[in-house]
Fold this sequence. Notes:
Elements: H1 8-16, H2 18-31, H3 33-36, E1 42-43, H4 44-51, H5 55-67, E2 71-75, E3 78-81, H6 83-86, H7 97-103, H8 106-112, H9 115-121, H10 125-130, H11 134-140, H12 142-166, E4 174-178, H13 184-192, E5 197-202, H14 204-207, H15 211-216, E6 223-227, E7 240-244, H16 252-265, E8 271-277, H17 286-297, H18 306-315, E9 318-324, E10 330-337
Parallel strand pairs: 4-5, 4-7, 5-6, 7-8
Antiparallel strand pairs: 1-3, 2-3, 8-10, 9-10
Helix pairs in contact: 2-5, 2-7, 4-5, 7-12, 11-12, 12-13
Bound molecules: S-adenosylmethionine.
S-adenosylmethionine binds at residues 135, 152, 156, 179-181, 185, 202-203, 206, 229-231, 244-246, 249.
Amino acid sequence: xxxxxxxxxxxLRRLVNGYQVTQAIHVAAVLGIxxxxxxxxxxxxxxxxxxxxxxxxxxxxxxxxxxxxxFHEEGDRSFALTELxxxxxxxxxxxxxxxxxxxxxxxxxxxxxxxxxxxxxxxxAFQHVHGTDPWTFRARHPELSAGFxxxxxxxxxxxxxxLLAAYDFGRFGQxxxxxxxxxxxxxxxxxxxxxxxxxxxxxxxxxxxxxxVLAAAGVADRCEVVGGSFFxxxxxxxxxxxxKAILHDWEDAPCIQILQTCRRxxxxxxxxxxxxxxxxxxxxxPDAKFSDLNMLVGPMGRERTPEEYAxxxxxxxxxxxxxxxxxxxxxxxxGVAA
Length: 338
Ligand SMILES: C[S@@+](CC[C@H](N)C(=O)[O-])C[C@H]1O[C@@H](n2cnc3c(N)ncnc32)[C@H](O)[C@@H]1O
């Protein structure tokens, strides 16, 4: 054991208590504390006044988060942003605040309470706890749906630069992003490649939130927005089709249905770009392995290996070309419609 590492029991207890950190960051994100610290340190009393919270209790929250490096306690109960805390700002280049707000939401939190049920039965925890799937649940709760879309927008912003460096999206003329959420990833591609046109499709109540995202990136005039289900149809005419963070939401049979929908819209030779994690090697890549559990608990999907994606491609008549890894744990699985 490294002389600097904590005793095994202490290290394990910290892991066990990770839920406390999750909820504390969630509260700071929901209150917008990082934005309030953007101009410099402020006292916890001033932050309490600005957020309409209980001063003594907000201080305890910020003090705890300073203990794990999210904020820095300056003395006289003032706090500053650290490198980690900056990522909670809404204007951060790689924002995590929307994700923190979503992950701590009661309905997501409650779904994770069904993990033991999932492990005992192989069934989906979300369905067990809420009696429906997350897509139907969120469609019934517009504010939770908007919160999830913001979380996805944050994750796309966090990954975009690495993905655009890893794969040349500029070789196409028209890209269709199937299940593209509010359009953050497609917007980043269009912003980098001014000759490109895009088609964004997702559920109608999701694409209805795309306008501000596309406008902020200055690409709204080059992007068509289409509402609908990827189990029914995808827009024709693209020369590349993106599925980013879609297949990991589903088991193999619905993945094949989604790929078949895309294939029907694609001419032979059209490129398929599946943007997903690589599940990684044993004993490594905890982010991918815990995302796999998150998929089990939430939408009843799974993370996969490049071989498993290649098998899905083959099942629908896509030739698997290559996996383009990036500097982050997500890469581009490229296929071609045979
Ligand atoms: C994990 S999110 C990924 C969003 C986006 N591609 C990204 O990477 O930020 C999955 C997306 O699938 C969409 N989705 C779920 N069921 C769908 C359906 N039946 N038809 C179209 N989109 C659907 C959701 O609305 C959501 O935007």
